[in-house]
Each structure stands twice: as C-alpha cells, then as structure tokens.
Amino acid sequence: MTGEFGLIGRLRRLVGSAGPQSPDLLVGIGDDAALWRLGDRIIAATTDTLVDGVHFRPDITGWADLGWKALAVNLSDLAAVGAVPRFALVTLGLPPATGPNPIELLYRGLLELARASGTVLAGGDIVRSPVLTVTVGLFGEVGVPPGADWRAHVLLRSAARPGELVAVTGTLGAAAGGLRLLLADPSGAEGRAPALVRAYRRPQPRLEAAPVLVGAGVRAAIDVSDGLVADLGHICEESGVGAEIEAERVPVHPEAARIFGPEALTLALTGGEDYELVFTGPEAAIARAADRSPVPVTVIGRTTEGPPGRVRVVGPGGKELTLTRAGWDHLAPEGP
Amino acid sequence: MTGEFGLIGRLRRLVGSAGPQSPDLLVGIGDDAALWRLGDRIIAATTDTLVDGVHFRPDITGWADLGWKALAVNLSDLAAVGAVPRFALVTLGLPPATGPNPIELLYRGLLELARASGTVLAGGDIVRSPVLTVTVGLFGEVGVPPGADWRAHVLLRSAARPGELVAVTGTLGAAAGGLRLLLADPSGAEGRAPALVRAYRRPQPRLEAAPVLVGAGVRAAIDVSDGLVADLGHICEESGVGAEIEAERVPVHPEAARIFGPEALTLALTGGEDYELVFTGPEAAIARAADRSPVPVTVIGRTTEGPPGRVRVVGPGGKELTLTRAGWDHLAPEGP
User: Fold this and answer.
1) How many domains, in total, are found in chain B?
2) Is A10 inside a domain boundary?
3) Are residues A29 and A139 in the same domain?
4) Would the CB atoms of B25 and A120 count as touching at under 8 Å?
C-alpha cells in the first residue's frame, strides 16, 4: 500500500488514460471538489465519508455531532473551491442493531447545519453495513458572471505561483487538541476546554470567507482537513511550487496554547480537522482578503520556486523544524 | 427497527419539517434520483453504496465486476427518472490490507461501463474502513426543451394513475438465478448458465430505453433493484394506487426458466437486481413505448384504484399468489 495519495495518483492516471473525457469537466480528480460546466452555470460536487473507528468514535462523537460533521467536511470542500452549497445526498451504512432514534439524532445534527448553510437535503440511500458509515454527496454552484473567465471565480489547489504569500483563516490546533482531551478523558474534556471540544465536534466550514477570498483576487486554496502542512503540501504538489511556513506566525488556538503549551504548535501544524482555509496569493490580494474577511486572516509564509510539493517549516532562528507526521493519510499503516 | 422504508418515511418527515426547502428542488427523497433546477437546466443526482457481505461477496463478485456494478446501479437510478448521465464521484472504503492491484481492477471495471455510458469520472474519496465499501455519486441531466413543463420529460414513482397498464423492459429473474447458482457452486455456475451469471455480475442499466419511454408518453417508472413486486410497490405507494400483476405474463428469463422451472417465476417476481425498468402508462403510451423501445417491452398488468401501495399477483385462474418475500429490504432482520 502506497498510502492514499500515492494510490490516488495511480488511479488518476488510469482515469486519464482509460476513462471518458469531456470539455465540460473543468476540474476533476485532485482538487477539493469537481467542477462541471452546465450551460452557462458551473456545478461543484464533492463527497466525503466518515467511518466508525476511523474518522470518529461513537463514545466521543455523539450522533447529532456526527451528522453535523458529515455535512461540515463536505461544506468545507465546497468552500475550498469557492462554491455555494445547494443540495446534499446522504448515505447511511447502518449496523443491523441500530435503532431509529440515534439515526434521527444524526439527521437532526445534519439538518441544523443544513439550515445554517442553506443546504437542501435532497435524498440518499440507507444500506446495511457491519460498520457505521456516513457519506455525504454535496452539490453547489460557482457564481460566474456571464462572459467572465470561470478561472477568476474559483479557488484551486493548482493555482499557486512562486513568490506568493501563504495565509490561513481563523486559528489552528483546536480540533486536534479537543480530540486529544476527549480520548484522555471523554467526560471531563468539555468542562476543561469547551472551545476545543466544540471545534472538534462542530467544525465551522468557512463558507462566508471563501467568496471574499475570490473577490480579493485569491486563486489558490484548500481546506485544512489533514493538517496544515499536509494540506498546503497538496497545493504545492498540484501547483508545482514549494512553500515555507514561519512557525511563529502560525495562529495557534489560544485555548490549545494554554493547555498544551509548546506542543500546541505541533497540533496546529499537523493535527488536522480545523476546516480553516489555507490559501496563497499576491501580496495585494492577501491584504484585501485580510481586510474584508469575516474571520481573521493570518499570513504564515511564502510560496517558493521549489522543490515542488515540499513544505518547509522554519523556527525562530530560521532553522527547519522536522515534523514526525505531516498530516493524516487514511491509508498509511501508521494512521490511528 | 422498522425496516428501510419505514425509517426512510420517518426521516422524510423530519427533513420536511426541520430541513431547509427550495423551489429548485423539484423531486427530493422518495424517488430514484433527486431533481434540481439550475437555471433552465435540470440536474439529476443519485447515490448508492455496495457493502462487502451485504451487497456482494468477493468470492462471487470479482473486483472488476464490483466496479462495473457500483456504477451500474446508479446509472439504473438515472434511467429510472429519464436522465442522461454526466459525471460520477467514487468513494472507496478500503480495509488496510487492500493492495493497489485489486483497486485498479475495480476502477477498470467501473471505467469500462463509464465509457459505454458516457459517464466522466470526476473525483471522489478514498478512506480506510474495516469493511470494503464502494459508493458512487452520479450526476446527470434531464433534457427539457425551453418553455416546456419538466414533468412531461421525466419518469417519477409518483406519476402513476389508476387504470393504466403496467409494463417492464427485458426479462426478469436472471440476476437472482445467477446469484443462486454462484452461491451453490462458485466455480461451476458460469459454465452452467453464462447468461444468468453475467446478468448478476454485469447488469445493463436501461439508459437507452428511458428516453424512449419518456417520448412515448410514459410518466411513471422505477428500476427493478429490490424485486419486481417490491419496486412496483414503491410506485404504488408514491402514486397512491394499487396494482395487479398477471403472473403468466411476467417475462421470465429463458435460462432461469430452463434451470429453475416453476421457481423461476418467484425469482422474477421477488429476486431483484434485474435493473430493468417497470413502468405504467395509458394504453396508447405503452403501445408506443413497446413499438419504439430498443429492448422488448412486456405488459404484465394494470394499476388499480387501491388499496394504495398494494401489489397483487394473480395466477392463471385469477387466484392471488402469496409471496413470502416481496423484495429486498436492507434493514429487515430476515435479509441475507
């Protein structure tokens, strides 16, 4: 097994050589969402699955939180391409012993975020499964004025250029910190660090920030699901650039810093599940984005000529930090 | 547990009361695919999941067949609403021990049908899972001429009226017969009944027949996935009508009849996985459909005033047949 990203590269080549192509497919495998042209409109589509024991543990994530989260991770993918959500299909894989009440709770959590984000629940599927799974397929739309170039109205992993600033919305490390506390003390974690636990259980996709970034002239973005370094790495791979992050500029969540001390920086760099947006752009675009964004924007580094795909994290003295784990790869043997 | 359809009804009420609504959602939960208006176009979206041990067994369904089938069941849902496929997202849930070669085989099977059906593979997700799952999200389009009423250009479960003819494409019972032979003798089944085994492993969604039905004036249809009686029952529930099937008119697959004798009728009525279309319409519409369809169309009965949701199967003497199992309900305790 070569890990998720090695396998995806292999399948991508296979699809490119053996699969049918279409001029209407604007963006396919390799970004946060697929973009498809339909007449004078552009659809964005994405899907993500949460699996019991892999992406959540029922003793830590309640049913309603699980429903919220299953939709949130998909909304975050749409935010990462600059799309507005329209409708969702939900597929539940249910162990035979599952009663109707937990499922209704799951739906209530999901519908709460659906209302908040204007996402209509349009259908789905329920199947028997030995393990609980929740899959959401989400469809949105990219607003492109008639006659305009669609590329100027989306955020892509492949649009970064060398010499741009790297910035991030909000703060990082809260969700990973919340998870760590919940694993250590499921009943006491919330009292000790409510903001961290909430960040883990009820992530807030950056749907309001995304169009502001687009309007400010930002073209390259991804959401932080696997971890800041890993996800910025995806931008670098798809864009053929390198990047350098200054560790001391990374906006660590204050509650994570209070509880975890210096280790909070590791959570912020590699913890994942923050669902913030990390993006790159020319200085003027980033300045406009920071000025207009409804959530704080922090510049954390720069893109470089290379090596392509490589993200360096440098400490206070300019010395490169070594990270034991660059992010969450679902198929890597060392994954949790 | 009230079974899949009881639970779906409950969730549907919850979504109707607590979820956001939109005038652009033309058809939501309760049909084979969701229909969404986007400007002057209509998108159709559907999703289906195959789970190891529930929907397939790896010793019986090879990897390439599994890929084919995962796309086929979704294409069949699009055919059942009269839509043309455009692009698909594929989510694999992979046990840690899965090597890259089987996954590539799976993709090759899927891409084979993607090419044959003009479906572009646009992305997806790969996650770790203790059990192998394949989820496809599929997007298509319904062709509605400018200014025309969209209802006259789709097939819906809810559009049947009393006193219509009930008809079906192709033949029934082949896939269930193939599965039965494969379970009894995995290595010998193909030699004994190649057409049945192929029907089970490589179902052919009725994408070419669907637009012909629409053009002929048919408005109500569903695909036969759970079994003829169960699926016609879904049309009856959504349309508030009853139906009567004449057992001797049901087009049993000839190879199933040869091997299973009189029991082949039970396979045809309740076996499922045929992925034919069962539909209803006025006599003239059904006659036109039969005349123009690229696959044989057989009239098998009539819709009635009621009782709503009830399907009766009558034998040669007009006597009602009792069926032990009306079809496949993934959540029913007696499911395989």
Assistant:
1) 2
2) no
3) yes
4) yes
The answer to whether the CB of B203 falls within 8 A of the CB of B66 is no
- Helices B228-239, B263-270: axis angle to 10 degrees equals 40
- What backbone torsions phi and psi does residue A229 show, to the nearest 5 degrees? -65, -45
Establish if A16 belongs to a structural domain: no
Query: Before A307, cis peptide (omega within 30)?
Result: yes
CA of A44: which chain B residue's CA is closest?
A: B122
CB contact under 8 A, A49 and B127: yes
φ/ψ region of B227 (left if φ > 0, alpha if ψ in -120 to 50, else beta) reads left
Q: Based on the domain organization, do B236 and B281 belong to the same domain?
A: yes
Question: Which helix (H) or strand (E) covers residue A223, if one does?
Answer: strand A220-223
Asked if residue A329 belongs to a domain, the reply is: no
Answer whether residue A6 is part of any domain. no
Domain of residue B69 covers 23-146
CATH of the domain at B107: 3.30.1330.10
- List CB contacts (< 8 A) between A48 and chain B: 91, 125
Q: Phi and psi dihedrals of B300, rounded to 5?
A: -120, -5
Contacts of B53 in chain A (CB under 8 A): 130
CB contact under 8 A, A87 and B11: no
Interface mutation vs chain B, best among A40, A121, A157, A334, most B CBs within 10 Å: A121
- The SS3 assignment for A186 reads coil
Residues from chain B that touch A7, judged by Cβ atoms under 8 A, are 100, 103, 126
Q: Are residues B330 and A125 in contact, defined by beta-carbon separation less than 8 angstroms?
A: no
From first to last of its 336 residues, chain B has per-residue pLDDT tens of 335 657 888 888 999 888 889 999 999 988 899 999 998 899 999 999 999 999 998 888 999 999 999 999 999 999 999 999 999 999 999 998 888 889 999 999 999 999 999 999 999 888 999 999 999 999 999 999 888 999 999 999 999 999 999 999 999 999 999 999 999 999 999 999 999 999 999 999 999 999 999 999 999 999 999 999 999 999 999 999 999 999 999 999 999 999 999 999 999 999 999 999 999 999 999 999 999 999 999 999 999 998 999 999 999 888 998 877 555 444 444 333
